[in-house]
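Milestone 3.1: sequence recovery, worked example.
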């Protein structure tokens, strides 16, 4: 479908169906001069928080970050107030007193879904959940809703015509011959893809994909699954980022993987039950050499811990508190066990399975921590829309699991901001710094004390002997465009309520 047609469908809607499901026009506003007052600043480069600071944004760029000044020094008399008021020379003032400001979060593994379980939902449902959690950039790792649609939405977002993060569209490439592989890589480049995602292929096809991708300046992300090509092979071919962990412990196992003799890769329960056990099978000395090779080759590791969390605690995964207001009914139906659906494999999931996966997590997290200690680039990716994993909320949970893996919250925020920018080759975002793009999250609370303050559902805190709820992202600023995060969440709650009312 041509871009002009997609544009018409997205914004005008020639049928009632399109009008109900197309992305709504963006309500975000970019100001000539924006002042964010009195904020604690976490810069995303790993430095300690500073503040309170005043941040001046001019158009789409951070103009200055400087110690906060009393409001009357801006030329407005009177006592301090939490209510924003006009300040000469500024078109908008945001009072961030008591709040923390971080760079906008970068989700390196954000699938865009326009429905689930063969039932559509509004096309801005996912986008608004992301923006409401401070996510300003998303790498779409496969464009499963169609390359043309994803590229079109990336352009609409860049033009502020829809409320969505910056979208970096990668496209899945698989082929049955080297010639067809090269043709498909060229097609991705011609139609606006910014990278490719590679799964299982023969070694000669892999080599052709990698060579053609290099010629067309398309970075490769890979979800290796289980195949002849392991992490060492892929790194030597020039793969830029590894998703999940597949291929890494495999490269450290002497001989074949040790699966039960009844194992079938095409049985999803078998595949997910036993895949993580590869960490136990890996030889530690070999694994050390694998990590050294990955670091030397400059690859990024995007572990996506959280999407596998159900494997170690299924009851928790199925009863998350945000499902009530924010999960579409067709998404919840998709999550439930069904051998015909990808990722819906939790039938006959046992205590033994959960215990094995807790051990898998321990070993996996230790490997990621060691990779980072040796200089490797670690990023945050959610892979939401699968395995009881809800968009936006999943990204924050991934950050929590990075802390569980042993990283300091300052490191976790760096993983979710400047490390993601580095992986994507974005030279002027991911850090709060004058001259950089104004991608900013303003959070009601201190995420260094509690990363849960990023959650849209907020946190319960004690004040003067009483429990009150606060937290959540208050404003998400994407390329200088200000979005009211609570309003985005209100929109999502209305979508979910309407979907449940319409459900048979």
């Amino acid at each position: 479908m041509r871009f002009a047609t997609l544009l018409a469908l997205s914004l005008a809607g020639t049928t009632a169906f399109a009008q109900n499901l197309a992305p709504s026009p963006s309500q975000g506003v970019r100001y000539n001069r924006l002042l964010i007052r009195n904020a604690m600043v976490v810069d995303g480069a790993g430095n300690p928080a500073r503040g309170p600071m005043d941040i001046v944004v001019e158009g789409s760029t951070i103009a200055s970050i400087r110690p906060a000044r009393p409001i009357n020094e801006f030329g407005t008399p009177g006592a301090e107030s939490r209510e924003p008021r006009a300040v000469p020379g500024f078109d908008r003032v945001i009072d961030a007193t008591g709040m923390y400001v971080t760079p906008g979060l970068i989700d390196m593994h954000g699938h865009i879904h326009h429905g689930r379980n063969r039932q559509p939902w509004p096309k801005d449902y996912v986008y608004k959940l992301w923006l409401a959690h401070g996510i300003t950039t998303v790498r779409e790792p496969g464009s499963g809703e169609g390359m043309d649609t994803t590229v079109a939405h990336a352009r609409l977002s860049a033009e502020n015509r829809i409320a969505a993060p910056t979208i970096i569209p990668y496209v899945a490439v698989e082929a049955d011959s080297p010639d067809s592989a090269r043709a498909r890589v060229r097609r991705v480049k011609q139609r606006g893809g910014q990278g490719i995602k590679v799964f299982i292929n023969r070694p000669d096809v892999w080599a052709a994909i990698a060579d053609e991708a290099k010629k067309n300046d398309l970075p490769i992300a890979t979800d290796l699954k289980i195949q002849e090509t392991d992490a060492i092979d892929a790194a030597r071919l020039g793969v830029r980022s590894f998703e999940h962990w597949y291929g890494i412990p495999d490269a450290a196992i002497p001989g074949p993987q040790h699966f039960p003799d009844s194992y079938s890769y095409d049985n999803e329960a078998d595949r997910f039950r036993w895949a993580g056990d590869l960490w136990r099978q890996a030889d530690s000395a070999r694994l050390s050499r694998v990590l050294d090779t990955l670091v030397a080759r400059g690859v990024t590791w995007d572990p996506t811990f959280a999407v596998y969390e159900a494997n170690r605690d299924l009851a928790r995964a199925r009863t998350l508190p945000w499902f009530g207001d924010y999960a579409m009914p067709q998404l919840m139906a998709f999550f439930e066990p069904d051998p015909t659906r990808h990722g819906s494999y939790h039938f006959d999931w046992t205590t033994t399975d959960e215990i094995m996966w807790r051990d898998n997590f321990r070993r996996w997290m230790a490997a990621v921590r060691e990779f980072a200690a040796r200089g490797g680039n670690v990023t945050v990716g959610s892979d939401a829309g699968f395995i009881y994993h809800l968009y936006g909320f999943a990204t924050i949970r991934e950050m929590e699991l990075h802390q569980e893996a042993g990283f300091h919250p300052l490191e976790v925020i760096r993983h979710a901001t400047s490390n993601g920018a580095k992986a994507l080759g974005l030279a002027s975002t991911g850090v709060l710094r004058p001259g950089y793009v104004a991608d900013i999250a303003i959070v009601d609370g201190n995420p260094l004390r509690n990363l849960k303050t990023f959650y849209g559902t907020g946190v319960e805190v004690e004040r003067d002997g009483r429990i009150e709820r606060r937290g959540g992202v208050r404003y998400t600023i994407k390329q200088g465009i200000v979005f009211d995060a609570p309003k985005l969440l209100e929109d999502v709650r209305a979508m979910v309520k309407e979907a449940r009312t319409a459900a048979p």
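The chain has a mean pLDDT of 92. The first strand starts at residue 29 and ends at 30.
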